[in-house]
Amino acid sequence: MPNEFARRYSIEVTRPNAAEVAAMAEILPQHTPVYFSAVPTITPDELVGAAAQLRKSGLEPVVHIAARRIAAADDLQKLLARLHGEADVRRLLVIGGEVDPPGPFADALAVIQKGRLREAGIEEIGIAGYPEGHPRIASDRLEAALDQKIAAARAAGLRVHIVSQFSFDPDAVVGWLRRVRRCGIALPVKVGMAGPTGLTALLRYAKRCGVNASLRGLASGAAGALIGNVGPDRILAALAAADSIGDASPHYFSFGGIVQTARYARDAATGRLPADLPQA
After folding, report:
1. Is residue 278 part of a domain?
2. Roughly what angle, to the nearest 10 degrees, separates helices 18-27 and 258-270?
3. Residue 145 structural domain
4. Is there a domain that residue 83 lies in?
5. Separation CA 94–CA 241 (nearest Å)
6. Residue 92 · residue 64 · CB < 8 Å
7. The predicted structure's pLDDT at residue 132
8. Contact between residue 107 and residue 68 where contact means Cβ atoms under 8 Å apart
9. Residue 129 pairs with which residues in a beta bridge?
10. Contact present, 12 and 37 (Cβ < 8 Å)
11. Does residue 37 fall inside a structural domain?
């Protein structure tokens, strides 16, 4: 049966080539949001070109902007002008970015407040959420920053949604969503989860991204003996059954490959997942 929670979804990719964009366009419904990761080595030409390919293929490009990696305020304006003019980009995911010392923007909030996003044709932004916390930021600071970014986005005339860090722990994700809702935040939340990926790669990404609780759970018990690809079936099922989580939908990280993740997202939405796929 179709999973209603999985029916609406987004995908996050890194440097898709032309063949991968074409394959996604064949697999995914028109206007599916495809988030384009802000890897440090990507050039503006490459970023704009990939966003344009996604737009021409009928998908919705959502470009990551890493605040602390922006070398000059004018660089941001030039990039936004090209993204909107050449790829009709209307949505961004604004993140901090792990760079010290930063450029003119100390964090995502500074970009939202001072980046003139609405003037550049941006209509909506995503901001980060952390179901398992952040390895370097205290939980009370995370909560305050979330409130500040929401307020700043609204003051700038931008729609806003939350995109969460990926997790392998259904209880942590459901508990975090319920805390967000109890705080009065009713924004749409795109719940991060790893698409089907080999266990070794999942462990590597979890450690790199500081998903410590999930890393311990994934590496222990039966999960430690899995061979082949692991999919987020267990998290999808838990979220589909959960109450009091508000407007939430899956956001798939394509660690195991862009095309494979697109197929998984499509099949999860229509209830056609392979019965033998191990569960994370």
Report:
1. no
2. 10
3. 10-270
4. yes
5. 30
6. yes
7. 86
8. yes
9. 164
10. yes
11. yes
